[in-house]
Amino acid sequence: MDFKKYAQNLSWMQFALAGSLATNVLLAMASVIFMFSYSSREVVTRVIPPQMTQGAEIGSRAANAEYKKAFGLFFVNQVANLQPLSAPGIIDTMSTFVSPAIFGEFRRQALEVIKDPVLNAAAVSTDFSPSQVHYEKETDRVFVIGTLRTKGAGVDKTRNIVYELTVAISDGRPWITHFTSYVGNIPQSLTILMGKAKNKIEDIEPARQPVQRREETPEAQAASEIDAQGIIVQRDLPVRNLKEAIQTELKEKPAIKAD
C-alpha cells in the first residue's frame, strides 16, 4: 500500500469535509436570516386613486404622503358635506376612522351642524369644494383647502376654509389623530405657527409640533390609544325616523372627553 498517497488523499478528504461543514453552516445561517427578514418585511400596497397621477402606498405601520393626502381629502369631503338629516349616519361611519382620544370632541363638533338654524331651514344645502391638498412632512399634517357654500331658503353664503388633520397608520388602517378647521385659505404651517409663537416651539400644541419632538409618533399614539380604549364602533340608532335620530344625538354626551 502506498501510505504516502493514502495520507495525501485522507488529508484532502478531511479538508473537503471541513469546507462542506462550513458551507452548510453558512447556508443555514443565511436561510434563517432570509426567513426572519421575509417574515418581518412590511407588505406595501400601491394604488393610484382617482384624479391622482402619483401612487399612494400603505403598509401595516406607515403610508406615503400621497396616501395620506388622498385619505385626508376623502375624510374631509365626507364630514364637510353634512346635511342635518343625514349627519348622524355619516358621522357614525366616519367616526370609526377617528382615534379614541379625539373621538368625543370630533363627534361633538361634527354634530354642531344639526343645531344650525340655517341648515335646518327647508331646502338648505352645503357643498364643500376642495381646491388644494398639502402635506407637511415635518409635522405629518394634511391640509385640505377649499370653499364651503351654504345655499337655499334665501341664503347663499360662501367662505374659505382649511381643514387640518393627521392621518396615522396602525395595523394597515388609517386613523385620524388630529383634526381641526378654521376660516381662511392659509394653512397654519409650522413656519406660520413658529412666527406666532415667537419661535418658541414649546408653545405650539403637541399635535402641530415636528414629529421628532413628540414623545411618540402619530402611529404609536394611535396604537397605544386603541390598545387602551379599544376601537369605537357605533351602533345603529334604535329610532323610527331621522328627526328622532337628530333629537337623540343632540341629547347624548360624548363617549370620550378630548384632551
CA-to-CA gap between the ends? 92 Å
Question: Order of strands in the sheet with the most strands?
Answer: 3-4-5-6
**Beta content:** 15-25%
Q: Could you spell the SSE succession in H and E letters? A: HEEHHHHEEEEHHH
Task: Compute the CA-based radius of gyration.
Answer: 28 Å
* Helical content class: 40-55%
Instruction: Quickly count the helices.
Output: 8
Q: Can you give the mean pLDDT? A: 75
Give a count of the beta strands, DSSP E runs of length 2 or more: 6
Poorly predicted sequence stretches spanning 5 or more consecutive residues: 36-41, 235-243, 253-259
C-alpha geometry? globular
Structural class based on helices, strands and sheet pairing = alpha+beta
Region (Disordered): 208-227
Protein name: TraE/TraK family type IV conjugative transfer system protein
Transmembrane segments: 12-36
Biased composition (Basic and acidic residues): 208-217
Overview of this protein structure:
- With 259 residues, the chain is an alpha+beta fold.
- The protein has 8 helices and 6 strands; from the N terminus they run H-E-E-H-H-H-H-E-E-E-E-H-H-H.
- The chain has helices at residues 3-40, 65-80, 87-95, 100-110, 112-115, 190-196, 218-229, 242-251, and strands at residues 45-47, 56-58, 125-136, 141-152, 155-170, 173-183.
- A 4-stranded antiparallel β-sheet has the order 3-4-5-6. The protein has a two-stranded antiparallel sheet with strand order 1-2.
- A hairpin with a 2-residue loop joins strand 5 and strand 6.
- Helix 3 (87-95) packs antiparallel against helix 4.
- It is globular and about 100 Å long.
- Mean pLDDT is 75; it is low at 36-41, 235-243 and 253-259.
